[in-house]
Amino acid sequence: MQQKEMQDGKPRSVSVIGASGYSGAELVRLLLRHPAVEIDTLYAFSQTGKRFSDLYPSVTCDREFLRYEGEAVSDIYFLALPHGEALTIVPELVRAGKQVIDLSGDFRLKSPDEHERFYRQVKPADAWMPYAMPELSRNDIASAEAVSNPGCYATSIILGLAPLFLGKDHSVKIKSVNCTAVSGLSGAGRTSKTELSFSEMSENMRAYKVGQHQHTPEIMQALGTSASSPSFDFIFTPMIGPFTRGIYSVLSISYEGEFCKDSADELYRNFYTDAPFVRVRGSMTEVRHVAMTNYCDIHIAHGPENGRLVIVSAIDNLLKGAAGQAIQNMNIMLGLEETLGLL
Questions:
Q1: Pair 62, 187 in one domain
Q2: Strands 296-305 and 308-315, how do they pair?
Q3: Which of 98, 176, 225, 262 could form a disulfide with 231 if both were Cys (CB 3.0 to 4.6 A apart)?
């Protein structure tokens, strides 16, 4: 691993662009207690002039939000912006020699065509950075100066499926995956929307973007195929539930080959042996088991039986699905202990 430790024992300076949103706020909370870095500047376009503690009184941070105007003075930059806004900012920071972790979807997909199809935005063909899921690409992250942080649904689903597609020593062929995943309301961001208000969502649940969610090509890409020419049938039904934070994914899998419960359990546990934030549980996991943590919990809920398997995974969408995983990636990029500031 490339070592990029603190210079002269001094913490690295960090700035967050888009610090007023939910993911940005979680980044600030985590960075404030991280022993190897110190916050330099917080940027927020719509909240310029306000103080962080005005928006989030539970966090002691009186830094004022500034408007980002192209300055590049910090060592490390996190970007927690709406899709499309990082496309011009990230290249400028990279050219300035800064380390960058982008939480948007702007640089996740290698295919510009799939990006345009699912994000409804055009991007340059070279607008791609290493996909930074520590459990799958730790060495690539360690040698990178700029990375693309995975999406929240994608994190839960990819980690729930990865051993079946990327694991060794098993002869199972996946025929189809039917995924239903429920996200808490914070997954939609901080911007007020009537349909996501308490009175609309209390005692309610609904599906959205069925078959066309922007995390679909990201999931397929990470599993070694593509949304345009998939090697297995994939149906993804995202849903919104009446809780604040968390993602709960139920993965119903059809396969060909010999597979038993013990071999499935062994496959998952071996695959995640060196993954400090993935827990393969023997009992059913729940959202409350992972809320406010950087863990992904995985449970083999059914089978393998008659060519069927059901996997359940759970994460906190704002931590393992966004800010926590971003800090995890920063630690790897700096050559620090992967869990630093996250336990």
A1: no
A2: antiparallel
A3: 225
Q: What is the CATH number of the domain that holds 271?
A: 3.30.360.10
- Cβ–Cβ under 8 Å, residues 15 and 93: no
The mean pLDDT of 271-291, rounded to a whole number, is: 97
Burial class (CB in 10 A: 0-12, 13-18, 19+), 189: middle
**At residue 206, what are phi and psi to the nearest 5 degrees?**
-150, 150
Hey, what amino acid is at 68? Y
Q: What is the pLDDT of residues 117-144, one digit of tens each?
A: 999 999 999 999 999 999 999 999 999 9
Rounded Cα distance, 306 and 280, in Å = 23
Residue 342 domain flag: no
What is the per-residue pLDDT for 194? 81
Q: ∠ CA 133-149-52 to the nearest 5 degrees? A: 135
pLDDT digit string, tens, across residues 78-99: 999 999 999 999 999 999 999 9
Helix (H, G, I), strand (E, B) or coil at 227: coil
Just list the catalytic residues. Answer: 152
Query: How confident is the model at residue 169, as a pLDDT?
Result: 67
Query: Which stretches of the chain are DSSP H helices?
Result: 22-32, 52-55, 86-95, 112-119, 134-142, 152-166, 198-201, 216-222, 261-271, 287-290, 323-333
Looking at the structure, do residues 120 and 211 belong to the same domain, yes or no? no
